[in-house]
Amino acid sequence: MKPFDLCELGVRVAAHLRREQRWQENSAVRFLGELTVDYTGRTVSVNGEQVSLSKREFDILELLSVNAGQVFDRERIYEIVWGIDGDGSSDTIMEHIRKIRAKLAVYTLHSLIETVWGCGYRWNG
Question: Chain centroid to CA 1: how far?
């Protein structure tokens, strides 16, 4: 075990906390055209109209929107959202994506989640 200075440890912890605070402030709300995603409050709205999403639906929307342009296959989405110990099937991802699209379609004509055939899904916002 390496000896360390308590003052140095305090400075390093403070630096990490500052970086985390900046990240939370910058990512708390993201505007994607007419869509607003509040990652901290876990809410979604389109043109000011609240879109009601389940916990898993929001988790999927968050994963895709934060990583816009990146393609995720169903297995990877399932693993990230449900965890490695999830006891269901990645087929449930298709149903959740369908529900998210349907809920957003009430408020916008834009298709924000794109199916990349044979690969998975990508945020198109």
Answer: 38
